[in-house]
C-alpha cells in the first residue's frame, strides 16, 4: 500500500485519498471527508491517452509534514507542499516555493522537545494564491517524497484504462486478469471530476499535530539548538 494524495482540478489543492478498485471502477475517498464526497471513475470514462496522462499527473505519494528538529531542511529555493488557512477558516494544501528563511533560536519544551520558531516566506505556485507570498511556520510545511511509486488500485485502473483506449477490451497487458483491489465497501454514487462540500463539512487539516511555537530570540543565520 502506498499513501497517495490527489490534486483536485476544482481548486488545485492536494488532498490525502484512499483508493479502491473493483476491476471496473476506481473509487477515491477523501481523508477527513464524509463518504458522500467519494468520487468514482469507471474504466473507459477517460477516453484518450491525454486524459489518462493528465489524470495520472494529479496523483503522487502523500507529503509528510516536517517536525521541529527538521527545520534546517527548509532552505531558499526548496519546493514544498504547505497548508494555508483562509479567512473563512478553510485550510488547504498547495505547492509553494521557499523564497526566504527567517531563522530564530530554538526553544526546548518542559519535556525536552525541540521547538522551532523560524518563519518562512512562501511563494505559492498553484490555486487561488498563485504568485502571492505569505509567511509560514514549520507546522505548515510538508515535503513530498521522491519517486513515482503508486498505489496498486490506481496502477490497475490506469492499466485497464490504457488498454480500453487502445481497443483491447479492458484486458490487462500480458493477459492478466484484473485484481480486485477494493479495500472498503462503499455505497453507489459518483461525481466525475466534481466535488461540492456542504457548509458544515470540516476542511482538510494538517496531517500531524505540531509543537507550540514561541516568538523569542531571532538569530540571523542557522537555527541554534
TrEMBL record:
It comes from the Eukaryota. InterPro entries: SAWADEE_dom (IPR032001). Signal peptide: none annotated. Residues 2-142 form the SAWADEE domain. GO terms for molecular function: chromatin binding. This is SAWADEE domain-containing protein. It comes from Turnera subulata. The lineage of its organism: Eukaryota, Viridiplantae, Streptophyta, Embryophyta, Tracheophyta.
